[in-house]
Amino acid sequence: MYRAILRLRQPRAATLSHPLRSAGQILLAALFGLLAGGAAHAAPAASSGGGGELVIAQSAPFSGPLAPTGSGLRAGAQIYFDTVNAAGGVHGAKLRLVSRDDGYKAPETVRVVRELAKEVQPIAFFGVVGTGNGEALLKEKVLAEVGIPLVTVRSGGQALVKPANPWLFVTRATYADEVKKVVEQFVPIGFQRIAVFYQDDPFGHDGLAAAETYLKAAGASLVAKGSYEKNTTKVDAAVKTIAAADPQAVILVSNTAASAEFMKQLRAAGNMAQLVALSVTDGPQVAKLIGNATARGLSVVQVVPDPLARTTPLSRELADAFKRFPPKDIELNHTVAEGYVGAKVLVEALKRAGPNPTPKKVRDALETLKDFDVGGLILGFSGTNHAGSRYVDITILNQDGRLLR
């Protein structure tokens, strides 16, 4: 079994960990360290099943405007890992999630992933946030370098899945899938003049390109486009440009904080265009930021079933697990559900990898997941396809700040 060496020193302040070690395990770890002669980097350990732990590592934003996203993904995964651990773990091994803050900055993601690979020797990485962040890992060939798979990226960027990278597995639909759904739903009912508000980075460019393609194919017009800088809410220029074009609808390829600020300023400017945000925007959080009255009517694309509706086995299972293992200061939402789904996929791969897993065995096992049912949501991978899901739905905020289908 591939395990991290347990250290007696305290984890770094930026590390969020869910320790599952007993005093006996700590003593064994200390003894192992002495026997190893204090080696800085131990070779991957293989052992029989029936004990120990498997470390899953996460680099994600836990500070800055995307902190709720990183925290939500982590919470969803931790809930499922706690559920699995309570049932005895995977082949007897308990799961431990180690998360560190990268501030949604691509260079930091690269640094943190390399650091985690060296320090905790994870069986897998999980829950990176951001198209540019994921692309940076691929550009630098970090995953291949460390030989550890990454499961679940909070991104629908095409570059992450086309072509399939051997070490990266995405458990959500692409932004192109989301934009296509928006165009198919809104253009036929009369929305012909459409603008795009987007983040000026690979994420935003990906969504903008999809909008240009699908709007043209549908015979609709892209009447304006406005951008904002990543990790900011400087939307003034974009609001001015888009409001001047007087579109019937605006597709928001933006994060929650920027979407909220854009909507607030656009409404203040007197423009009442229908706003449709891609799945990276948290609708209820927008309502909290700008008020229910202003946020009312915002449509939000979703890539997992509504966790509050209890209409699918997945949503009912998650709701029950959320009550059993409630995370601190986190509300049940689609981001939590996305983390939960990704964790289920990873755990299934760990099971299939057998009692003596290695990162390579887990990677290979992921490619055997075909038509894997996580509770009404079907995911699957192959040797040439690492885009696990095509599920897309559209919700809308009501007057109480709640999402409805």
How many helices? 14
Extended strand count: 15
CATH arch. level architecture of the largest domain = 3-Layer(aba) Sandwich
* Derived structural class: alpha/beta
* β-sheet strand percentage: 15-25%
Arithmetic mean of pLDDT: 90
Give the termini separation.
44 Å
Text of the CATH class of the largest domain: Alpha Beta
What is the chain-wise order of helices and strands?
A: EHEHEHEHHEEHEHEHEHEHHEHHHEEEE
Could you say how many structural domains there are in total? 2
Which spans have pLDDT < 50 for at least 5 consecutive residues?
Answer: 1-49
Biggest β-sheet: strands ordered side by side in the sheet:
8-7-9-10-11-14-15
Mass-distribution shape: globular
Instruction: Round the Cα radius of gyration to an integer and report it.
Output: 22 Å
What is the CATH topology assignment of the largest domain?
Rossmann fold
| Largest sheet data | 7 strands, mixed
Q: Report the CATH superfamily of the largest domain.
A: Response regulator
Fraction in helix: 40-55%
Signal peptide: 1-42
Keywords: Amino-acid transport, Signal, Transport
Pfam family, one: Peripla_BP_6
InterPro entries: Leu-bd, Leu_Ile_Val-bd, Peripla_BP_I
Explain this structure:
Belongs to the leucine-binding protein family. Residues 1-42 form the signal peptide. The chain is α/β, with parallel strands linked by helices. The protein has two domains: 15-173 and 312-379, Response regulator (Rossmann fold); 175-302, Response regulator (Rossmann fold, 3-Layer(aba) Sandwich), CATH 3.40.50.2300. 41% of the residues lie in helices and 18% in strands. It has 14 helices and 15 strands. It has helices at residues 23-35, 67-86, 106-120, 131-139, 142-146, 175-186, 202-218, 236-245, 256-268, 283-290, 292-295, 313-324, 334-352, 359-366; strands at residues 15-17, 53-60, 94-101, 124-129, 150-154, 168-169, 193-199, 221-228, 249-253, 274-277, 299-302, 372-373, 378-379, 393-397, 403-404. The strands form three sheets. It has a seven-stranded mixed sheet with strand order 8-7-9-10-11-14-15, sandwiched between helices. Helix 2 (67-86) links the parallel strand 2 and strand 3. The longest helix is centred in the first third of the chain and has 20 residues, at 67-86. It is globular and about 60 Å long. The model is unreliable at 1-49 (pLDDT under 50).
